[in-house]
Write a structure and sequence with these properties.
The chain contains eight helices and seven strands. By secondary structure, the protein is an alpha/beta fold.
Length: 253
Amino acid sequence: MILDQFKLDGKVAVVTGGARGLGRAMALGLAEAGADVALVDILDMSESQAQIKKLGRRCIAITADLSDKGCVDTIVHTAVEKLGGLDILFNNAGIIRRAPLTEFTEKDWDDVMNINIRTLFFLSQAAARVMIKQGRGGKIVNTASLLSFQGGILVPSYTASKSAVMGLTRLLANELAPHQINVNAIAPGYMATDNTKPLRDDPVRNKAILDRIPAGRWGEPEDLKGAAVFLASSASDYVNGYTMAVDGGWLAR
């Protein structure tokens, strides 16, 4: 039955940035579909962990600073050791810095690039090695952005990193498909999260954004659950290298 293709029973997922927002919602979606989850964040993950455990799933919290790739081996080793394997990796963690182009600092460039693309690559690499060794395939899902498709303003390092995420998703998919590892990305639209609070608090920008979204509202983190489960499950076994926008129709406008 087709609905069985969406079940994640017996799967182990690692979700970065799982303490709140989009990461928490996607982690909950995976748990609701049957997966055990290793949350990764530098923030307190106790609330996310409690919600997942209420679903009857195993959940561990791995505190890590993703601005330093030195945490990669610890994340993967801990997930495998404590949960028994690694089937799904969600590279969701990301940060954003806003400033005019002529005032943008080197630190704001490096901080964003380190988390949003550098560690994402090395964590994908480490997870892929485990998945290949296990011999049962796997799923890697990256969080891209509407700025994977567009230029934006005031966020040069974010746009550069998210454009790179879309390109790297394709590269990883090409190399890992022979191992039955699917690599895809989700590009959230304008979502009501901490990252977009400055936009929502700006009456002019808020109105301009809402006027362009056919759905007529900001997205909620829960709007990503369906896409997350689909790309993590057997239902997407023939989907490779694709960046799926969940944007209320923004890109269609």
